[in-house]
Amino acid sequence: MEFELKVSTGIKDFDHVIDYLHLGDNVVWQVDTLEGYKDMVIPFVLQAMKDQRKIVYVRFGQHMPIVKDDPLIKKYEVDASKGFESFATEIHRLIEKEGPRTFYIFDCLTDLLSNWSSDLMIGNFFKVCCPYLYELDTVAYFAIMRNIHTFSTIAGIRETTQVLLDLYQLKEKYYIHPLKVWQRYSPTMFFPHLIEGDRLKSITASAEASTLFANINRIEERMDYWDVIFSKAKEKLEEDIVEQEKTKQMLMPLLIGEKSRMYHLCDQYFTLQDLLQIVSREVGTGFIGGKSVGMLLARKILADDKKGRFSRYIEPHDSFYIGSDIFYTYIVQNGWWKLRLKQKTKKGYYQYAKELQDKLMKGKFPATIKEQFIQVLEYFGQSPIIVRSSSLLEDNFGNAFAGKYDSVFCVNQGTPEQRYQAFENAIRTVYASTMNVDALEYRMNRGLFEKDEQMAILVQRVSGDHHGEHFFPHIAGVGNSSNLYVWDKSVEMEAGMIRLVFGLGTRAVDRTVDDYARIVTLDQPTRKPLMHMDDQQKFSQHEADVLSIKDNKWTSIPLNKAISDVWDVDQGLFASIDTGTVLRLKDLGYQHMPTPYILDFKQLLGNTTFPKVMKQLLAELARVYDYPVDIEFTVNFQHQDDYKINLVQCRPLQTKGLGKSVDIPKLLENERCLISTNGNFMGGNIRLPLDYVVHVVTDEYIKLSEQDKYNVARLIGRITYDLRNDRILLIGPGRWGTSTPSLGIPVHFSEIQHVDVICEVASEEKGFIPELSYGSHFFQDMVEADIFYVALFEGNNGVHFNPSYLSSSFNLIEQWTSPAWKDILHVYKVEGMELTADIIQQKLICK
Q1: What is the C-alpha separation between 749 and 767, in angstroms, rounded?
Q2: Could you list the residue ranges forming a coiled coil in this record (predicted)?
Q3: pLDDT surpasses 90 at 827
Q4: Is the pLDDT of residue 411 over 90?
Q5: 3-state DSSP call for residue 757?
């Protein structure tokens, strides 16, 4: 039995030196030439064939084949150009398929540099491949070229492999020098050995050994291949434009990713100098991700504007990029790669996500990466920073991933150790968010679940300044080059619109607070907001999101407090004194209350160039993209027309546009319908036949406990999933997707992503007021999922909502739950019902 566990190298004397190879051994040859590796493979393969072993050749290199084609040798050709994850996954699966006690020959690992350009990733591949081969009692041959890889790569391979051998070639003679032979020892094992035909001679004499090693350089440290590439690229800046362009074309795939519309736009605008500037601020290696690419591209487009309209307004940035290879390194070095592979299968996609998410929050980073993290923090000092997701697929055409992954503010206060720990935790949080339910659903529904979704990270300095004990920008928001919420014929769709808030921009993108952002149509910026708002103070922003320097955290404070702390610029730019409240307070005897404000941005929108600049900025980006764009921004003022716009994000926005005009059916006298409204809808011109109407009854919903309101949300998720192949109109009170049940229905978007129309019913009397979602993550989801949106303001002129129109239909709710829910939730199968809407006429009818 002992003999069966031992395997011959095909070189008889060498078998005695190392006490044979053992089942489970990974054998790594460090060589000067590929011919040397091949000469060591040949006797091993011949002996394995003689012993009737199952032999597999894994071919991925661009170098000459190591093994000749032979019917007794199974060959797999694996494409390394698809990236680390695809490559490692495919090899894992072929090893699994071939099973135990298979003998493998792999091409030279160094050749992977031509595809991955990173020593780090070669070390990661060996670390995930080697243990699996060991588990299956295989014997595998690998090779690496001497004096090309970093010490850390070689150290990682030495630590992981069972057998590490140096092969020297001097004057046409081969010397084998064992460096590691796991669990075996002999007095001469670790001497160099000269191969003389079928015999081996141990070089034990000091004179002979020193003569041999004097001709070999083994101690020279090497830069990571990634650094070598970019170091050589810097030299090209001194050469002509043709050489610079050739070098740029070589670097683009390393930083930007595979070819796409975004790739070609980057190619059009980025120079070699731009790429070298990016890589000089990268931690680790790999792609910088979609969010970083979008931000950098948009800034370059504006900087290159031929009319020079934007340079004076754009705030510079000094961001850092944590390369996508660090994400895989984190997983591999913490021993979670097998779990990652299990999660990437259809069967394990949801099953293992939570376990992997939990682990991603608890891992450790390699020392070399930690040192680079420390240097980034030392650079920023105590300036607040934000750690943002920047995955490979993020912010690209058709896949915005809006709000699917986390961003984490680091207020960056405290001791260096405390600040570092917060930074590491922020990175872990972003990595763990790849396993969020919404992110998983998003990838699955777009057929992306098997694609590599490496997570790069964008580290940005938070735009703003200290105001009292808090840090925030004056204003922030989101903007879109196309106004999809055209509510009458005079609104210019292509002028764009912005969603504006005071303080940090979180209130502009998150739809979870009892507040209202200011929606500005850029062709008529001073025009009243879109809602029918008699009470301007009630339907405005009441709190501001800020960073608390004292408490070292993101928080919210009353708007009046935030505005009163702004002394560096005229407060009237943003807010007007609420004279009505002032008079009421005086009547009540209050003499020393803080000044109450209404956030109306009246002077900002009416007396500054800001709306005009934003309109031009969005139009220029959309022109270059040849597509509507969505941006996130902050603005800081010195004086009324002296301000800086910090463009923090830019991405294509998927939209249907106007479409063909639609004939709206006329209602006959006394004819009833389910819905009729003038304006307050978005999603283009449509004529949509409906199969089901799902209606949450306002009066009954109000009576529910908070827990039961969450139960309603979960129930709706099950219903819409079961009806996902039908056309569904979803009607409910207040805001769909809120996190506050008193404001609406607390569904996750993933629970309602299959519906065709979302209708939010306003009832001010009952406390449910829809909020135009434009620019929020919820809005992005609706647009990408092609969901039509309607807000119904009951009681307003031209608005009719008649739930009794469906009273003749049978409520199907008992197919999903007990009869106790039948008064709260109605599910109707409808025949012949259509929803018709036309943007230009601003008419919508559903009957």
Answers
A1: 22
A2: none
A3: yes
A4: yes
A5: strand
Rounded-to-integer distance, Cα 319 and Cα 316, Å: 10
| CATH of span 3-214 | 3.40.50.300
Identical topology for domains 225-461 and 465-652: no
Q: Which residue has the tokens 């034990």?
A: 204
**For 275-332, what is each residue's pLDDT tens digit?**
999 999 999 999 999 999 999 999 999 999 999 999 999 999 999 999 999 999 999 9
Nearest to 473 by CA among 481, 487, 461: 461
CA angle at residue 201 from 192 to 206, to 5 degrees? Answer: 55
Contact 328, 85 (CB under 8 A): yes
Architecture of domain 465-652: 2-Layer Sandwich (3.30)
pLDDT tens, residue by residue, 202-237: 876 665 666 666 665 555 567 888 999 999 999 999
**Strands 26-31 vs 163-170: parallel, antiparallel or unpaired:** parallel
Q: What is the pLDDT of residues 99-143, one digit of tens each?
A: 999 999 999 999 999 999 999 999 999 999 999 999 999 999 999
Reported as a single tens digit per residue, the pLDDT across 621-669 is 999 999 889 899 999 998 878 999 999 999 987 655 555 667 888 877 7
- Per 3-state DSSP, the chain is made up of helix, strand and coil in percentages (nearest 5) of 35, 25, 40
Strands 518-521 and 675-678: unpaired
The CA distances from residue 251 to 97, 457, 531, 695, 806, in Å, are: 36, 19, 50, 54, 62
Q: Which helix (H) or strand (E) holds 599?
A: strand 597-599
Contacts of 809 (CB under 8 A, 6+ apart): 828, 829, 830
**687 vs 114: CA distance, rounded Å:** 53
Q: Which residues contact 827 (CB under 8 A, 6 or more apart)?
A: 692, 693, 694, 695, 719, 811, 812, 813, 815, 816
| Measured distance CA(618)–CA(298) in Å, rounded | 10
Query: Could you write out the DSSP letters of every residue in 604-624?
Result: HHHHSSHHHHHHHHHHHHHHH
**307 neighbors 616 (Cβ within 8 angstroms):** no
Say which residue the tokens 């590491």 belong to: 424
Beta bridge partners of 592: none
Q: Where are the domains of the chain?
A: 3-214, 225-461, 465-652, 675-846
Q: How many residues in the chain?
A: 847
Per-residue pLDDT tens over the stretch 689-722: 899 999 999 999 999 999 999 999 999 999 999 9
Single-letter residue type at 244: Q
SS (H, E, C) 336-360: CHHHHHHHCCCCCCCCCHHHHHHHH
List the structure tokens of 657: 């546009």
Diameter of the chain measured on Cα atoms: 112
Residue 446 is encoded by which pair of tokens? Answer: 């777009």
The correct answer on CATH 3.30.1490.20 for the domain covering 225-461 is: yes
Task: Give the strand pairing for 675-678 and 681-682.
Answer: unpaired
Report DSSP state, residue 364.
Answer: -
> Exposed/middle/buried for 523, CB within 10 Å: 0-12, 13-18, 19+?
middle
Spatial distance between the Cα atoms of 800 and 670, rounded to a whole number of angstroms: 13
CB 108 within 8 Å of CB 61: yes
pLDDT of 1 higher than 50: no
